[in-house]
Write a structure and sequence with these properties.
It comes from Cyphellophora europaea (strain CBS 101466) (Phialophora europaea). By secondary structure, this protein is mostly helical. About 65% of the residues lie in helices and about 0% in strands. It starts with 7 loop residues before the first helix and ends with a helix.
């Protein structure tokens, strides 16, 4: 295992969280709770906000999730392979 008080646990937690976000299914999970891209475009405005407010916390979170899913998927495969090999050899 990587050093207990070093960056090891931080690396493990960040990789696990990125893996969790990368495998979220927009159709099966995010759309059910109203966090899909299609739901944001059809949402009705709440008090003091326009219908498609790009600065709302929900729209920012949906955009962050979709960008992580698109950009980080291939590098995460490489990082996971490196971590698995590290754990098999030195773990």
């Amino acid at each position: 295992m990587l050093s207990l008080f070093g960056f090891g646990p931080l690396i493990y937690v960040s990789v696990l969280l990125l893996n969790a976000v990368a495998i979220l299914s927009e159709d099966r999970f995010l759309a059910r709770i109203g966090w899909g891209r299609a739901h944001l475009q059809q949402s009705e405005p709440s008090f003091g906000q326009s219908a498609n407010d790009p600065d709302s916390l929900k729209s920012r979170a949906v955009n962050l999730i979709s960008s992580i899913r698109m950009v980080a998927r291939v590098p995460l495969i490489a990082v996971n392979i490196v971590l698995i090999i590290y754990e098999l050899v030195l773990g």
